[in-house]
User: Fold this.
Amino acid sequence: MAVMNMIQALNSAHDVMMERDENVVVMGEDVGYFGGVFRVTEGLQKKYGSTRVFDTPIAENGIVATAIGMAAYGLRPVAEIQFADYIYPAYDQIVSEAARLRYRTAGEWNVPMVIRSPYGGGIFGGQTHSQSTEALFAHVAGVKTVIPSTPYDAKGLLIAAIEDNDPVLFFEPKRIYNGPFDGFFDRPLTPWAKHAAAEVPEGYYKIPIGQAAVVREGEDVTILAYGTMVHVTLATVRELGIDAEVIDLRTIVPLDIETIERSVQKTGRCVVVHEATRTNGFGAELSALVQERCFFHLEAPVQRATGFDTPYPHSLEWAYFPGPVRIGTAIRKAMEV
Amino acid sequence: MSDKDPAPLKPNRPKLALHVPEPPFRPGDTPDFSSINIPAAGSAPRPDTSAAADDTHPLTTHLVRVLGEDHKAVGPWDPKLDADTLRKMLRDMVTVRVFDDRMYRAQRQGKTSFYMKSTGEEAIAVAAAAALSQEDMHFPTYRQQGLLISRGYPLVDMMCQIYSNKGDKLLGRQLPVMYSDKAHGFFSISGNLETQFPQAVGWAMASAIKGDSRIAMGWTGEGATAEGDFHAALTFATVYNAPVILAIVNNQWAISSFSGIAGGEKATFAQRAKGYGIAGLRVDGNDALAVYAAVNWAAERARSNNGPTLVEFFTYRAEGHSTSDDPSGYRPSNEAKAWPLGDPIERLKAHLVALGEWDDERHAAMQEELSAEVRGAQREAEKKGTLHSASIDFPQDVRTMFSDVYEEMPWHLKEQQQEMVDELEAKRRWPS
Assistant:
């Protein structure tokens, strides 16, 4: 075991998999010699050489397209899109190609590719370095979407994603790369070292894709969250003294519906939290599923605490961010009836 | 805004004018292609396959041609193929044409939804397949059925795909002609144009990463070169010196848009190679020997780590875009006949005749034999059904709709699969 922040844990996952499987290659803008703008791929090129870890031109469509070609050949490419906000040029390649190849060839070809991308705000990144794009991919049949919230999960899930035989979108909540940000932007950040999930095995282990984690057991309300929002939610219920059950989804497609159902059937109340814009956000799907499957257990309407339906504003970031007050308000609404 | 147009801010400057390209001829016009420069066969120099990319660039405004007016093979690009190879190419090209005619008619008879012929372009895919190894991977677009036919893929299997019937190994999921066959080095065709072009580069990069000896060949029409993926393909190809051949089949027409709408008015498509610093060739696509020689040159270049080549095959789409298209609405009906590069099958046949290796009787006999073969394959394929559009007696097990979305079926697809089965049951009982 070693104490790692999320960046170190992700770096370790790459290292473990590149060591185990020579078909794993790492590509993306600035990922080679420099080791990535967030340092996730640091040291990999030096260790594994520049034909397995290399910089790419600034062309997200080209990065994903060539990764698909490599996967068709038999490699397992791990492609970094530097910010999720830059993923749109690759959307056609992801939606029309990576997601469909297994289906359109009845299994003759498949795309064992991971697209990693830092996402989410809270770093004064403005509208082009802050977006949460997960719902755009959760809507697409044929890709999986994974979002870790701790160093331990990040490593185990990335290893599972690299070993998966289908394309995986792996969104990394960059606000918590260095510490479990609790949403109180006006207080100092606690580093990962003080968090139990920063204890990470140095070797190989996997966390199965499609399994949620109950990160806090409780009786009165179920809160569904992922990424940064897991920590903001935990801080919120702690400060409000609410006996909430907090579920970290970890994978949004395929979703762990059993864990959600079991919890909502117990608590009778549900709040959905995400940083992405509200309309057609993944919370809409969660809300619909809970309503369809747990209606007779529900004591109150399902509430959502989300980002607003605006672009991510630079100077107004902390007015936009769904912090403890917005989450707390949603919880109270779900509990007042 | 006021009611009146605003006064120009700089009245002394000339008014700007937008240029919208127009093809030289429209329906009712008499096509006259005498302004197209057709260099004599044998006139293009053949650089060494390890030559600097720059040395190839004069060829991007020239035209590599081997078959002369006298039907003899001339010049440095003559691949000097033996008669058996030439006859095999001729046979494959005729097979493609017979197959196309048959399947076009099948669509007209309501046996399938859609078909696309490659009439006039048969030499390109057939000669390219002949020039590469069986192990090399093609990333084709939808007019390269000649690749499969040349590599010996069963005609029955192609037809089953076209009919989306019980024999269709793609389980009826793909539009007709969107074949896929890994074993024959034929990557799955996508209906989204140009996506396969940078994928071919990625496959070639992987082959180089692994120190393999196989190369890739990506295919596009001239129209889709306007896509951003074209630029990504050329950029990645040059950056990583990928062992790939990138082919542009310039058949002059993208549905109703002539090549000028894709940027072909002011430069040839092959000239784009120069900006990326990669080798470029412009080739008479109706000359099977020139196609073979060019692909062979580019393959040798790629295999010896001398990098990618962009090849423009200059040809003409003699028929409509697809069975859903009627070209008489946008171009003169006799344009194909006026096309100065002739018919690729007639040209190769005439060459074999000139060599004393072929004659009209043998040609007629082969034509007869291939017609019978294609008809026989069609009978076989139709035993496994044709596409019916207004029935829920589907050719496939309907439950397969949900397989292969993922390697393992997640719970939500299992639930939806059951919903669908129940829904079809209810449909049979409807309205009770």
In short: Residues 6-20 of chain A form the longest helix (15 residues). The interface with chain B takes residues 25, 51-52, 56-57, 59, 61-62, 65-70, 72-75, 89, 92-93, 96-97, 100-110, 141-142, 144, 164-166, 210, 253-255, 257 of chain A (CB under 8 Å).
